[in-house]
Write a structure and sequence with these properties.
18% of the residues lie in helices and 35% in strands. With 704 residues, it is an alpha+beta fold. The protein folds into 3 domains: 25-311, Immunoglobulin-like (Sandwich); 316-485, C8orf32 fold (Roll); 491-702, Jelly Rolls, CATH 2.60.120.1130. The strands form 8 sheets. The protein has an 8-stranded mixed beta sheet. β24 and β25 form a beta hairpin. α5 (335-345) packs across α8 (395-408).
Length: 704
């Protein structure tokens, strides 16, 4: 009998607007009681434990670190020996009601995660099965191949794929259509890319594979929505009897999860699914795709082996206590770290200067290699002294070296578990160390906090990437960890200030000089750019792209990393082809404009929050003079707008006797998050006002 989805349509309910205040956890449990969670029958205490005691090894558990980076890319499971038969409804499917412009649709993606039953089993296993229907030529181009990340710690097995053509013919993916690439030789991570044959509109693409990893932890959620509609998404977890877990889920965009629980000889099976899942809205300046998807995760709470119970991620205190022995092992002897700290202290009288010196040493002299995260991932037997000696280590090793050197100088500091919001928001109420992407260090001096990132070579002491701001973090302490917010810096701290002094001569030639100063996140962002060109060449090109009517000369770039500030100076003269003798035009917003608003969706169409990179302040001052016999015939008027999204103000002063114009424009943005509805409309109004103002150039002409 043909098998296929029971329905070939999306949910009838419209997509809900997504506010930044979400996600709201819809499934929660203490994981160790018989009480049902919000969805029925999910979690119950697993009382039948294996006889005998075999404590799992540290290395076996740490393999989950690498797995956590890879599993987030995997979705989808195959229980049968072959692909599910394609139904007539699937073959005839040509359009998705509710999504008429969809380039493709996921008919189903199914995953079955079998957690290892330690000590009887050496690996956990993830089986994947995905079926995609191509609907348009664009879909054939977009979805004609699939790429899978894997490596030594997360092992790919038994990949199989095929194309089912509209007439029912089947074309298998051959060995010659599988391409392997190396991502990291040191980490032994690579990709396998599979190219589907004969892809065309109406074709069905099937693929399946299995992944193995040596841990009983799956640290990343199952995501139910992608960038195309999904008719059915389902994940199953097979939980051995000696492992207790806590379910966690977030429902987004009108998706409602369903679930059921079964008992098998191997343990408990939790099955979770959603039908008719709409695609994640594709809107500019939005949250990461995962933040806009309904998702589900099981958090391990307890493992029992014989009479021994090991409590896992129940709260931040138990999580810190679990990690502490590994931190102790990684620390090793403190002697080389103390000696290095004392050597770096020489010549720095103040504690603040000592902090900066230690931070600069760890940041610049110890290279970052290996996975991020806050669980140790160094090779067995490696300690911080080894890392110091060889000059490279993981981000955690660098943070711990900095912390230990600060401690050697009696400087109060703590390791901080932090999350980069570009990889998704976290639920700090759930103790999951795999939420975190980077360890930081926080110093307290004279009651003031100094944040240190020992990895980012573009940041001085006291500065963080903007993508850690606005997130909650955990101050690591074995006995009493503390949840703290990382504050969002004020607009005034992140400036772009341009100052131009220009003069028109009697021949209509415009010439002068300009300066641009970047501070805070603006300076960091330009410093952080990965480019082949040197800063001088890159900034010259940047000026030439924005000041197209003049020739740029004598460019000077001064980058002050210690103060997180960059200064650019230049001179400019009208291009020969831009000299008309009797008129001169100029955009008063240059080089920071003219601005075109990127927020074109109306208030009734925007479904997701806007996420700006940071709060900032743009300032322009133009001083222009002209000779006798010339006059201004067109100029921007004074303008302004202030609302909760920010403030825009433009001032124009003209001294006819001195033949001088002074123009000042300032744009301040708040946020950096703006929910759909009024907050988004206020941001849109702010940018629209600036764009309208910038569209009016300055024009001078010769004559009465």
């Amino acid at each position: 009998m043909a098998r296929g989805p029971s329905t070939l349509k999306l949910a009838e309910s419209p997509v809900e607007r997504i506010d930044f205040e979400e996600p709201k956890t819809v499934v929660a449990s203490d994981g160790l009681t018989d009480a049902d969670a919000t969805l029925p029958g999910w979690i119950r205490r697993l009382d039948s434990f294996e006889k005998g005691f075999h404590m799992f090894s540290r290395s076996r558990f740490l393999l989950a670190v690498q797995a956590s980076l890879l599993l987030s890319l995997l979705t989808g499971v195959a229980w049968a020996d072959d692909f599910a038969e394609v139904s007539p409804a699937e073959l005839s499917l040509a359009e998705i009601p509710g999504a008429p412009n969809a380039a493709a649709v996921i008919i189903f993606k199914r995953g079955r995660i079998h957690f290892m039953d330690y000590p009887k089993e050496a690996s956990s296993r993830l089986d994947i099965e995905v079926r995609i229907k191509v609907l348009t030529p664009q879909g054939a181009e977009q979805f004609g191949e699939v790429e899978i990340l894997h490596g030594r710690e997360l092992r790919l097995r038994n990949f199989k794929g095929r194309t089912v053509l509209p007439d029912g013919r089947v074309v298998e993916i051959g060995e010659d259509a599988l391409f392997e690439s190396e991502v990291s030789r040191r980490q032994r991570v690579g990709t396998t890319r599979a190219v589907f044959p004969a892809v065309e509109p109406g074709a069905i693409l099937d693929y399946r594979y299995t992944m193995y990893w040596n841990s009983f932890i799956d640290p990343d959620p199952w995501f139910f929505a992608t960038n195309i509609p999904t008719l059915k998404s389902q994940v199953e977890y097979v939980i051995p009897r000696n492992l207790a877990v806590k379910p966690w889920a977030v429902e987004i965009g009108g998706v409602k999860l369903q679930s059921e629980t079964e008992t098998e000889s191997r343990g408990t099976v939790i099955r979770v699914w959603a039908d008719g899942v709409r695609e994640v809205p594709d809107e500019p300046f939005s949250l990461p795709e995962g933040d806009l998807s309904t998702r589900f995760l099981l958090i391990p709470q307890l493992i029992q082996l014989g009479s021994t119970k090991l409590y896992l991620f129940q709260d931040w205190q138990s999580t810190a206590a679990l990690v502490e022995p590994w931190y102790d092992e990684l620390r090793g002897s403190k002697r080389p770290l103390k000696a290095q700290a004392i050597a770096l202290k020489a010549g720095h009288a103040s504690k603040r200067d000592q902090v900066a010196a230690l931070h600069a040493y760890v940041r610049d002299e110890i290279d970052r290699r290996g996975a991020g995260g806050v669980v140790p991932a160094e090779a067995a037997g490696t300690d911080l002294g080894d890392v110091l000696k060889r000059g490279w280590g993981t981000p955690l090793a660098k943070a711990m070296i900095l912390y230990e050197m600060l401690d050697a100088l009696a400087i109060d500091s703590q390791i901080v578990w932090a999350a980069d919001r570009r990889y998704g928001r976290i639920d700090i109420g759930v103790a999951n160390p795999y939420w975190f992407t980077r360890p930081l260090v926080r110093v307290t001096l004279d009651g003031q906090e100094i944040w240190l990132d020992p990895v980012d070579k573009d940041l001085p002491a006291g500065q963080l990437s903007p993508f850690f701001e606005g997130q909650s973090a955990v101050l690591y302490d074995r006995k009493k960890p503390e949840v703290v917010p990382i504050e969002v810096t004020a607009s005034e701290s992140n400036r772009r200030s341009a100052n131009l002094t220009l003069a028109v001569d009697e021949e209509g030639v415009l010439s002068g000089k300009g300066t641009l100063r970047l501070t805070g996140h603006h300076a960091w962002a330009e410093r952080d750019v990965e480019a082949d060109a040197e800063p001088l060449e890159r900034w010259t090109e940047w000026l030439e792209e924005r000041l197209t009517t003049v020739t740029i000369d004598e460019v000077v770039v001064e980058d002050d990393l210690s103060n997180n500030q960059t200064d650019i100076r230049w001179t400019m003269t009208s291009r020969e082809e831009e000299v008309f003798g009797d008129q001169v035009s100029w955009s008063t917003a240059a080089p920071l404009g003219p601005l075109a608003s990127p927020f074109t969706l109306g208030i009734d169409r925007r479904l997701t929050p806007v996420q700006l990179a940071w709060r900032d302040l743009d300032e322009i001052e133009l001083n222009l003079t002209w000779p006798e016999g010339w006059m201004i015939t067109q100029q921007p008027e004074a303008a302004g707008l202030e609302n909760p999204a920010g403030r825009f103000e433009a001032l124009v002063e003209v001294d006819l006797a001195a033949r001088k114009l002074t123009y000042r424009r300032q744009i301040r943005t708040e946020g950096p998050f703006f929910n759909p509805g009024n907050p988004y409309e206020e941001l849109r109004a702010l940018y629209a006002a600036v764009a309208d103002h910038d569209a009016r150039p300055l024009l001078l002409v010769q004559g009465n």
